[in-house]
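Intended use. Records such as the Integrin, alpha 10 entry shown here are meant for training and evaluating sequence-to-structure methods. They are not intended to support clinical decisions.
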Amino acid sequence: DICYCIWILFSCKKLCQCFNIDGNHPRIFTGPEDALFGFSVLQHESGGEKLMLVGAPWDGPPNNRRGDVYKCVVGEERNSNCSKVGLGETALQNVSKNLKNSHLGMTLTPDSPDGFLACAPLWSQECGTSKFSTGICASVSDDLQPRKTISPTTKRCATYMDIVIVLDGSNSIYPWYEVQNFLSNILSKFHIGSDQMQVGILQYGEIAVHEWSLKDYQTTEKVVEAAKNISRQKGRETRTASAIRMACAERGGREGATKVMIVVTDGESHDEDELPDALEECERRNITRYAIAVLGHYIRRQEDPETFINEIKDIASDPDEKYFFNVTDEAALNDIVDALGDRIFSLEGTLGYNESSFHLEMSQIGFSTHTLDDGILFGMVGAYDWDGGVLKEGVNGRIVPPREAFESEFPLELKNHAAYLGYTVSSVVIGNWRTLYVAGAPRFKHKGKVILFEFTDDSGIGSYFGSEVCGLDIDQDGITDVLLIAAPMFLSSGNKEGGKVYIYSLSGEGFFVPNGTLKSEKKSQDARFGYALAAAPDLNHDDLTDLVVGAPLEDEHIGAIYIYHGDGIYINNNYKQRIPGSSLYPSLQYFGRSVSARLDLDGDDLIDLAVGAQGNAVLLSSRSIVQVKVSLSFQPHSINVIQKTCQRGSRESACLNATACFTATSLSCLCKCGDTHPPKSLRKDHQRDSFFICQDTADYIRPISFSLRFKINNTKTDSASLPHTSAQIPFFKDCGEDDVCTTDLVLNARMDISGTRGRSIQSEFQCFPHRQKPYVIRSTHRRLAVEVQLQNRLENAYNTSLKLHYSRNLHFSSLSIRVTHIALALDATNPPYFNPMSSSFCFFNIGGCLL
């Protein structure tokens, strides 16, 4: 018989709420899936209104994915609609008229001291026929108004030019329509715009006239159309020097623009004495001059053009082979259009348009950002031919480390391997409040690498690999305790992209040393665990920073997030909570692609989680945490099987009362903002009494285990994880004050027949209980009786057992037990205790003569 142990499901209604993150009541915000709504998320507060900002970088028609940001109001309605903020149109309108496919909203980051950054890393700058994805970010105020744009790697195009064409319109130019064709063809090659080329035309003969000034036309189409309507000025003289002097002072020139002059003429100047002064003025104004000699007039008259050609060479900048052209007639002007255009386009820029190497032109600013106390750290994933780089935009200016700054970590001989340095950026604070910057290069040698560095002459103190980084100040003392490096495409079993997060802890010497890993569920599947990482200030109210990890490909691309709690100055390697997307909303996809955990959005003073998915954004609320302490007490304190205190049916039994006392204490401050109150006990000494009956048992040494499991109402918890407590109830042994039983057992045995070697059975048994020599007995009886007497001379002996060994030729027949001095029913094979004397008779049938 055993003593029954039961479960008590104790109701704590109104006593406490469920633990940690509420997975039962998510708030689902839905947006256009084809706009990649949910690509990024950020918690935000504006004028007392709690918002979740959601990036939709593919927002817009198919031919113009401008991108935008949506605001989702966290109000009383569980699943409210989201509205477009309109940053895609307003935030970048002063930067470029070409806002096509800028993909604003790929990155959302808190700005310092307020507001946030919305970035468009694929925003491209058009320069001539080329597009450079320099990237751009918009700084937005708390009230969602754009403040300024940040594009530190955007430079003026090589085509930022002011071009003046000085055109000979004297009588000798013929036919005029060929000149008009030339103008149309060369102008159609120019990229006219406020941030690229401006073109003005001055026609001269005896006098010089502005056909139009530099700022008059801002598109190529309008300039070409205007050129078709230019009529010849005519005139008997060609006053080239005067025209050049007037062109040097062309109105509408822009500061910083490359100044270019194209002189087209068919004869020697009539004011050649003034030409040196005019050219000197051009040199002083840093004007590059192209000169084209049209020889048609000389050929038609069969005159020698040598003097004319020498004059035109003097007008052209040096060297002549680059800036001087001559053509046989007006029709041949169209033959040099391409060559002239190529030479003009190769004037400016550090690289030129036909070179294959890039510095910062493809940097994609905004692909990764990290807010610092004194500025912003940008990753430049596309810089230096996709080797990548970093840039700091701070209050003290801009710092752009050159490619050679990371040569020790990224050798120049590997420069074409596209390491993607700057794919993710962060910072950590170590001893002496020293700040180190962190940048990931996930494609370095196809394995990945992360470097820690300072903006000084010193090199980085260590290097690791990963594609997402996150520094955690676990104990919130201002010093980074843990650096997390994610490798979301780490191949797990079955060649699946399971993902892994590497943990590095700060050592006493100021180095980050490996300290384990975090992984997703053990089953083989694509998970991309670590695709998103976010520090949560304190989810479980122990004053330690926690961690949220996204795994958007888990469960057939439905996705999941994992919650890890801080532990001292470390992160607990075992996740505290896993929230699969399938448990929240049936159609979620890629849940966990982005996470944000920094604000209370539902007004309960608890940190909430914002999680991005494909076409959805999910808000998960924290729940209040209640610490429940349970104490168990019993009356009586031990079980006395001799004294029967109750009846079970018609049978007397030993009974006891068990009392469970519950004390619940809230660890969450549920006060209004500004109030400071210590955690308070919600209810004290709430108890529940239960009555138990203990039946007889064969084991009075081991105490009875009492296990109590309880459940909090309205929680979703499986039975294996129910909180529980246990206690043990001993049996009353009656062994004195010290409760230690001291025994003195004496054993005697006899047989009713004799055997060889002339010794008594008793002495033979006592002296040689395990002898190996055969002992032969002879008897006329077919039955053998053995009497065993066991006596206890001191205190109670519990769980005493007696074993009787006999040979195979004996067959056990029967057993009788006789107890003296005590009236207690005993189990013959396992009596509970002996006090003071017990004897047994065993009978055997004899099947042979060897014992």
